[in-house]
## 1
Amino acid sequence: MTKNSKPAEKPWTDPDDAPEWTEDHFRRAAVYENGKLVKPADGTWTKPGRPKSPDPKQQVTLRLDSIVLEKFRAMGPRWQSRINAELRKALGL
């Protein structure tokens, strides 16, 4: 090494560059045929969000006494779930 030479540096890599794709990436990639999305045959895709419940809750409008609502809300988060639990208990479910 001479007086003015620099040590060899590894090549610079742009941090925004995407990583190399693996076989798993290609297997799970979105596939389009004639402009329409086609699900892969191996079924490895997952849908975003929460899984569908077999017994989903239904949204309703319900009028409650203000004191009842105030007391349940004062118990903190998940007050709606506690109201549901109390109704289930009252119905023997």
## 2
Amino acid sequence: MRGVRDLAYGLYERRLARSLPTANLPRHVGVILDGNRRWAKLRGGDAAHGTQAGADNIEPLLTWCEEVGVEVVTLWLLSTDNLTARGSELDSLLAIIEGVVADLADRGRWRLNPVGALDLLPDHTRKVLKEAGELTRDTSGLIVNIAVGYGGRQEIADAVRSMLHEHAAQGVSIEELAQILDVEHISAHLYTKGQPDPDLVIRTSGEQRLGGFLLWQSAHSEFYFCEAYWPDFRRVDFLRALRSYAERERRFGA
């Protein structure tokens, strides 16, 4: 019986992939990898078990993105709120994140770009993230933003702070800056500066909220909420998200 289900699933997945309108697919996909803990709890495991299962599902996702021509992927692995977790639990989560980031860098297939308040992270985690960015800096192809210690409000605050420092170094007064300030000044100092904003944001686990993910950049994004917990997120779920996106008429206004 399972073999029949697997065959039917494979046929459906291939049909879905063939039916995607390739001219109307997202350039930048953001993914909130949610549900690792609940997935683990259902199986009698701890948070680290769920985080590892989620980490193991990242490389398949990047491969699926490559297959359809996505140019940028932003993965939210750890929020600034998560940094307040109990010491041993946080240590385990960071160790798993360090491991998956190092493995992705060793593949040499993707350009990894760590984003977040890296100064809030432990020294070793920050070192692993920065080394992954350096190692893959000249890699062509898919850009993968690794959001660790990330919060949307923190990003905007950091962008404004960076902008103020830059203009102060140029001798621009606060009054002068107030006269010329526009959204592009802030955009130029975001963690994702120079990249297209996300066209599609996917959140797994059934939660229907951003939770602070790419607050500035997602002003015109389309959203797709998937019931599956992140470790159970399959290629067919990804293809359904793309189909939903492709079928929408995007309106860039109120």
